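Researcher: Re-running this chain for the archive, since the previous output was lost when a drive failed. Same request as before.
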Amino acid sequence: MKLTPISLLLLAATLISSDLAFAASKFAIPATDEGLPGEGPIRRYGWFQNLWERKRSDWAKKVEQDQGALVFLGDSITQGWGDNMGNSFPGVKVANRGISGDTTRGVLIRMKGDVLDLNPKGVVILIGTNDLEEKASPEVIAGNLKLIIAKLKKHNSKMPIILCHTFPSSASKRRPADQIKKINQLYFAAVKGDPQVTVLDTWLLFADAKGDAKKLEFPDLLHPNKLGYAKWAAALRPLLATNGFIETKPEDFAMEPGFVSLFNGKDLSGWGFRAKKTFKQTAGFDGKKASDDSRYKAINGRLVVTTPPEGRRAQQLWTTKEFPKDFTLKLEFRATPNADSGVFIRKPQLQCRDYVLAGPWKDLKNYKPQEWNEIVAVVKGGVAHCTCNGEVLNAEFKVPATGPIGLEGDRGQMEYRRIRLKTSK
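Model: Regenerated structure tokens:
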């Protein structure tokens, strides 16, 4: 069709008007970096500008609707999980604030409208991979992360923040393993010692032996498939439970005849700290929901050993009673990725960890990562036969003639429940 001069003028006017409207939108990417917080890349590709403006303008219409949500903040990996995060957290009000292609600096400049204005009850962060593709240094990326965390903390000093390690990818995607590992090291250093921020090891959760993504979970070596998202959701659930988003009531459980409970599910009665050298009790927590340092907490039927803000801190909680007779001990545990803990039987420690990542028994067939697993220790004549979900961990674990039961915390979060014991007659 041949355009007349008047038609050409009208078309030009329409295009100019459209460009001006886009540029004038408060949801558009700023035209330059001048005056913007942070450092490093802000993407301005045409497709990205359109997506950025459309996503943010749509979210602005839902600010009231999304008040008090658990906000997921990130890039295409977060966006690709869907508006309701794949129905991974039933009953939880969620708000997906991921924009495909975004960078740490992009997230930083959209914090107020997309996140803070929602007054979130919690925030889950996964960001940084696209910065690498744009050749930002790990130091610049971590510097922006610090500013993001600072904004969240200033808005609400009690709101739980879960910081996910940047996922593995591939050098073929301009995201080499050594650079991603460096980002994650700097991320941890940025929040070390801050009890408001929990770091979740989602790099080791997904990395292969070379530190890259696995095609089974990341077909394009960048974005997770259903299997990858399911693993991410499973890794998050223990932390969401600890922070009161899910599992807000204890599950029903009928104890076997002859067993007595060592943990009432409501508080830490019957448990305390002991001195390392003398092994005498130094603190008891009868009637208390948490230890004096809040490392151990009773939450809805679970005895939770929280993630230490400093990364690792070995600590033990012991029963106030000792058990000189032969007995059968049963309990269930759940570990976040690479978490390290232990169960003390009278005094020696049986390693209790996220076995598949932390070992020492990495080849257990019945172990269920980030789900509940049962340990059974049968003590007879100074030897304990120990199993996990029916598989033998140690058939001849030597133990003293008497002593208490203990639970250790070291790295990551560990949870215990249904801790019960049956004494032999």
